[in-house]
């Protein structure tokens, strides 16, 4: 890909002459308007990970293929019963020439506590040992894997002299801060952004700078999946697409040099309910929705090549349920994975006082169940699944209409609690979702929309729900989930996982419908890429981690 950048910066993209470039420019196709996005990783509403992963070095990464953790900015990581010792690389620097020190980490950890990071769910305190070493003091025994998974979500993204201003402000000021000109610690430095693209260049201060021969790294805005498909089919418009659903008929049109990398997503299509809504605040209505939706039909309509249903909507990633639920699994309600259980749904609504009038379910005041069902524009597979969901629900007697919105607006509807029910991913994604604590807590708390689904108060209150033995079970959901993180082994964590999952599948704070393998795409006609047996092959995400390791290089 040859990019000609003029006075207008990243917007002046022209002269495409083939998949690859003589000047070592690498172009990622992506959906979203860069002008609206920023680099404050805690301001999740308008932060987008591709730009952040271009400029910030990760603490460590997880290889799905090898089931192992790989160090990034960390030089060593020791997890003991009551403490975690973090030792950072001696050559870790910022791209403005300043050395990284634990003064930066000190501010990062303080801001993480202020903003409610899940790390502090099992962290009692921390201490700075020296310029490169810190010790996290745990509040109790903790499963080592959960701590490592948590740390895969941390990046060298906090510079003390930039971020310390927020330590004395209300946390809302920090969470709403749009960091437009980041100081980089990773492979690339920020150059510019506009409505067309992010532009980055090599960061000479990066500790693995010798691995990087990509001179210019671009994240270009495309209108959605279809536009990205065409860019890869043409062979002239893009070198990669970090996360792009492509059905078999489209894959067949890709040139041979477009390589698919499938990675377990631990992410997928689901439904978020507004628990303050007069209808969806009722457990019976949420369960009725679960019974009506035929999850297999969503997969069939939107992508059986990469997608699969969840056996039971219970807050745990589908392929992890058997291991964690163990002998409890057979007692979980499936809600009909491959059928629409309308009889069960009818009974639930009638018992809750609803009547079917003129083909529409209404409450005692004559109000129908429905509204706008939000879905992200440009995500073609999600559009297909949203249309399938709404069709099934409306056939049953609900009154929904699909409302596709730009991604930022889609998030805003949920952050502002301006919705009744809509599509949203039900797993937080990435390696951390391999451990049930993260998805179970995500569904209760949902930091990414600021708790806009209004379940946080319920999560912190004692609830009584039907028990597995036919009686009743009383629990405080968030307390049970937080106990998962405090257990030193999987065996000791399992009873808490089972109890939290049981609550989840009855209460349905979210409704998990579909998960998938991520389809990530990269071209190898003018780029060398990671071998299939490389431990880096199945690390999220290839386009951002492979340059870190020297396994994505220009060969043109």
From TrEMBL:
Keyword presence, Transport:
yes
* Ranges for domain Solute-binding protein family: 82-438
Task: Identify one Pfam family in the record.
Answer: SBP_bac_5
What Gene3D superfamilies does this protein map onto?
A: Dipeptide-binding Protein, Domain 3 (3.10.105.10), Periplasmic binding protein-like II (3.40.190.10)
Q: Which UniProt keywords apply?
A: Signal, Transport
Asked if Iron is a keyword of the record, the answer is: no
Which SUPFAM superfamilies did the record assign? Periplasmic binding protein-like II (SSF53850)
* Family according to the record: Belongs to the bacterial solute-binding protein 5 family.
Query: Which PANTHER family does this entry report, sorted A to Z?
Result: OLIGOPEPTIDE-BINDING PROTEIN APPA, PERIPLASMIC BINDING COMPONENT OF ABC TRANSPORTER
The molecule here is called: ABC transporter substrate-binding protein
């Amino acid at each position: 890909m040859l990019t000609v950048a003029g006075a207008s910066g990243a917007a002046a993209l022209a002269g495409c002459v083939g998949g690859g470039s003589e000047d070592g420019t690498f172009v990622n196709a992506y959906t979203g308007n860069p002008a609206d996005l920023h680099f404050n990783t805690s301001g999740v509403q308008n932060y987008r990970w591709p730009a952040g992963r271009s400029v910030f070095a990760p603490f460590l990464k997880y290889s799905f293929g090898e089931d192992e953790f790989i160090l990034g900015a960390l030089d060593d990581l020791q997890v003991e019963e009551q403490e975690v010792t973090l030792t950072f690389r001696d050559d870790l620097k910022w791209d403005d020439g300043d050395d990284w020190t634990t003064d930066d980490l000190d501010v990062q950890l303080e801001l993480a506590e202020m903003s409610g990071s899940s790390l502090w769910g099992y962290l009692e305190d921390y201490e700075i040992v020296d310029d490169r070493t810190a010790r996290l003091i745990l509040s109790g025994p903790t499963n080592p894997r959960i701590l490592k998974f948590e740390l895969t979500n941390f990046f060298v993204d906090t510079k003390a002299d930039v971020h310390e201003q927020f330590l004395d402000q209300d946390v809302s000021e920090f969470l709403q801060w749009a960091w437009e000109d980041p100081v980089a610690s990773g492979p690339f430095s920020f150059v510019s952004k506009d409505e067309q693209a992010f532009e980055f260049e090599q960061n000479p201060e990066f500790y693995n700078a010798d691995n990087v021969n990509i001179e210019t790294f671009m994240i270009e805005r495309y209108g959605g999946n279809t536009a990205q498909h065409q860019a890869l089919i043409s062979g002239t418009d893009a070198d990669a697409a970090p996360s792009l659903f492509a059905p078999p008929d489209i894959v067949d049109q890709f040139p041979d040099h477009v390589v698919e990398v499938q990675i377990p997503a631990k992410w997928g299509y689901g439904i978020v309910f507004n628990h303050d809504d007069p209808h969806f605040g009722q457990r019976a209505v949420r369960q009725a929705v679960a019974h009506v939706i035929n999850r297999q039909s969503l997969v069939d309509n939107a992508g059986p090549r990469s997608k699969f249903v969840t056996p039971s909507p219970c807050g745990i990633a589908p392929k992890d349920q058997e291991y964690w639920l163990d002998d409890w699994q057979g007692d979980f309600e499936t809600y009909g994975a491959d059928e629409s259980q309308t009889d069960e749904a009818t009974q639930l609504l009638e018992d809750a006082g609803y009547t079917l009038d003129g083909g529409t379910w209404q409450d005692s005041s004559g109000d129908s169940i429905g509204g706008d069902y939000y879905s992200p524009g440009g995500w073609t597979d999600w559009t297909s699944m949203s249309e399938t969901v709404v069709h099934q629900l409306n056939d049953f007697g609900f009154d929904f209409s699909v409302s596709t919105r730009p991604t930022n607006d889609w998030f805003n509807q949920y952050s502002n609690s301006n919705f009744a029910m809509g599509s949203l991913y039900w797993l937080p994604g990435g390696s951390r979702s391999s451990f049930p604590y993260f998805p179970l807590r995500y569904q209760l708390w949902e930091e990414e929309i600021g708790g806009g689904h209004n379940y946080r108060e319920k999560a912190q209150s004692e609830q009584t729900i039907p028990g597995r033995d036919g009686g009743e079970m009383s629990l405080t959901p968030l307390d049970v989930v937080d106990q998962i993180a405090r257990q030193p082994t999987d065996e000791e964590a399992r009873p808490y996982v089972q109890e939290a999952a049981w609550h989840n599948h009855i209460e349905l704070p979210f409704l998990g419908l579909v998960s998938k393998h991520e389809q990530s795409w990269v071209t190898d006609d003018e780029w060398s890429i990671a071998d299939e047996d490389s431990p880096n092959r199945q690390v999220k995400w290839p386009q951002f981690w492979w340059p870190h390791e020297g396994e994505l290089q220009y060969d043109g």
